[in-house]
Automatic annotation (TrEMBL):
Residues 9-66 form the Lipoyl-binding domain. CDD domains: biotinyl_domain. InterPro entries: Biotin_lipoyl, Single_hybrid_motif. It comes from the Bacteria. This is Acetyl-CoA carboxylase biotin carboxyl carrier protein subunit.
Length: 88
């Protein structure tokens, strides 16, 4: 998923590459004069890379980050264990 700036301003990141995200987690904030907008991820995934540096100027539509598909990990395993515990 490509995460883009909603408008021109200064970007400040709240995530690091490799970090797992849930839908709605804030990837960055774009700040303009008297305006600050959080930029959330539309779905779960892992931050693949950040396209800008902290506190750099961006234009509306500029790429901020790429979030890749999340792999099924311990959370999925925990759900399976819970199901088997209920069957006992």
């Amino acid at each position: 998923m490509k995460i883009c700036a909603p408008f021109a301003g200064i970007v400040r990141y709240h995530v690091q590459p490799g970090q797992r995200l849930a839908a709605g987690d804030v990837v960055a904030t774009v700040e303009a004069t008297k305006l600050e907008a959080p930029v959330p991820t539309p779905g779960p995934g892992v931050v693949q890379f950040l396209a800008q540096t902290d506190f750099s100027d961006v234009l509306g539509g500029d790429l901020l980050a790429v979030v890749g598909m999340a792999e099924v990990g311990p959370a999925g395993a925990g759900a399976s264990a819970s199901s088997s515990e209920r069957q006992d």
